[in-house]
Design goal:
This protein is of the alpha+beta class and 474 residues long. The chain has helices spanning 12-26, 127-138, 194-204, 244-253, 259-279, 287-307, 315-329, 370-373, 380-395, 402-420, 428-449, 455-465, and strands at residues 42-50, 58-68, 86-95, 106-109, 119-122, 142-143, 146-150, 162-164, 171-176, 180-185, 215-220, 228-236, 242-243, 283-284, 336-337, 349-351, 357-359. Helix 3 (194-204) crosses helix 5 and helix 6 (287-307) runs antiparallel to helix 7 (315-329).
């Protein structure tokens, strides 16, 4: 059941009716909204909490809103159940009049219902509202069904000025005084979010390559289930670090070699993998598990080819890669699976001024079910994601720089092997299968969100479908 709003006379149904027309126009324009290109048919208010004491002039509403939309073509038919409607976390400021400084945060003016006459806006851009979130974490507050927690060993100051990071994607981030960064998850699912679960475990293992969470906030039983929803995580802000993607593009544009950085990044990735293997159980993949992995890859290929016609000419050849994986699994392949990053690419890596690499954003691919993201996977899946990222960087350069990509890919694998004792290239069938699966995912993503980028993964699809070496960028 939804939690009642504390403003006198306002029910959840009335509040939703009041906000419905504004959210229909505003949500599809947000970068983190996953349902672009499909009409919104309905809203369901899952949870409502008033975070500030209600006044006549100012309010802060925390909403969990489920958005119903038509299914995508690849989701129609088949025996699999239809995916549930996406649930989004919203923080809405409520004012009689919006100051000029908050004009870019405007969602709309309410003309009907209990909030008629008020202006609603994205509260993260309001320093008073975002400061409240940090204070709630610092004080370990509990407001309705929202629970704010922290690591008592971490000192969280009360005078850290907030600012919103402009580079938002699937989530939103607030930086507090160059000391902490608060990630607010936008698409919310019940259960343990890997982006809190894994960094906490890695901190206990003493893994220096992953920032340890300082605080987090949760929703207890905010929907019909009794499961906890992870809503946000506060971590140290790594001031002065360089984003791996931006760093790679700068070095490439300057004509500088990046293989040394790639090798160091391979070593850092291996260190994280070894720490995860210590913290959580690993499993040996038997025949049934390998066949299941190969079948999942084949099913994703079929769904993507159905949605993106440009992929169809390569589908038959790509299927042979997944068939080879299944065949090898029936033999004497000796592979293990463990918890991994799950969505590793250059943009998920930060390099310090001293040259040390950190890995961030352990949420995994948001399009996959949480249960799948938390399953043990072969570590080579992360390796394949990084190899694809080097190829992306090289393809973004004009002219294309295949030798640069090839050097980086090889150096990353070398660095990884220096720590683990096993080079990912020693399992070429497994590596090719995961790189192909990643490229298929990229084709679907780019077709939906960035059509101009579609030629980048399609070039990899062409290479992988002609049996070109998986560890080179031809």
């Amino acid at each position: 059941m939804s939690e009642a709003v504390t403003r006198p006379g306002i029910t959840t149904d009335a509040l939703l009716a009041s906000l419905d027309p504004l959210l229909r126009a505003w949500l599809p324009r947000q970068r983190w909204f996953a349902g672009k290109g499909r009409p919104i048919t309905d809203f369901i208010l899952v949870g409502v909490t008033e975070l500030l004491p209600p006044t006549a002039e100012l309010g802060l509403l925390h909403l969990l809103v489920r958005v119903r939309q038509p299914l995508l073509p690849e989701q129609i038919g088949g025996s699999a159940p239809s995916p549930p409607a996406d649930c989004y976390q919203l923080l809405l400021g409520v004012r009689r009049e919006l100051p000029t400084r908050l004009a870019p945060a405007l969602i709309g003016h309410v003309t009907q219902g209990p909030l008629a006459g008020f202006t609603v806006y994205e509260a993260l851009h309001d320093a008073r509202m975002s400061t409240f979130l940090l204070e709630a974490l610092r004080m370990q507050a509990r407001v309705g069904k929202l629970r704010f927690e922290r690591d008592p060993r971490k000192d969280i100051g009360d005078d850290l000025a907030p600012r919103v990071l402009a580079a938002e994607q699937s989530n939103s981030s607030l930086v507090y005084g160059d000391t902490f960064i608060l990630k607010l998850f936008r698409r919310i699912v019940p259960g343990a979010n890997p982006d809190l679960e894994l960094p906490l475990m890695l901190a206990r293992e003493g893994c220096a390559q992953v920032p340890a969470p300082a605080a987090w906030f949760l929703g207890d039983g905010v929907d019909a289930t009794d499961e906890v929803h992870v809503l946000g995580v506060l971590q140290p802000y790594l001031k002065g670090t360089a984003d791996g993607w931006e760093l790679a593009l700068r070095e490439l544009a300057a004509g500088r070699d990046f293989s040394g950085e790639a090798r160091a990044l391979g070593r850092a990735t291996a260190d994280v993998h070894l720490a995860l293997a210590r913290a959580l159980p690993s499993v040996t993949l038997g025949r049934a598990q390998v066949e299941l992995i190969a079948r999942g890859m084949a099913d994703r290929l079929d769904a993507a080819a159905k949605a993106v016609p440009a992929l169809q000419p390569y589908a038959a050849a790509l299927h042979t890669t997944f068939e080879a994986l299944a065949d090898l699994g029936r033999g004497e392949a000796d592979w293990t699976a463990q918890r991994i990053h799950g969505d590793l690419h250059l943009g998920q890596c930060l390099r310090s001024p001293a040259g040390e690499w950190s890995l961030i954003d352990f949420e995994g691919e948001p399009s996959r079910a949480l249960s799948e993201r938390r399953m043990p996977q072969p570590p080579v899946r992360d390796v394949a994601g990084m190899l694809r990222s080097f190829d992306y960087a090289a393809r973004s350069h004009d002219p294309w720089a295949p030798d640069w990509a090839g050097d980086c890919r090889a150096a990353f694998c070398t660095g990884y092997a220096e720590v683990t004792g096993r080079d990912p290239r020693m399992d070429p069938v497994l590596l090719r299968a995961y790189e192909t699966d990643k490229a298929v995912y990229e084709v679907l993503y780019e077709a939906r969100h960035r059509p101009d980028w579609l030629p980048v993964p399609l070039a990899a699809i062409k290479r992988l479908s002609t049996n070109g070496p998986a560890t080179e960028a031809h």
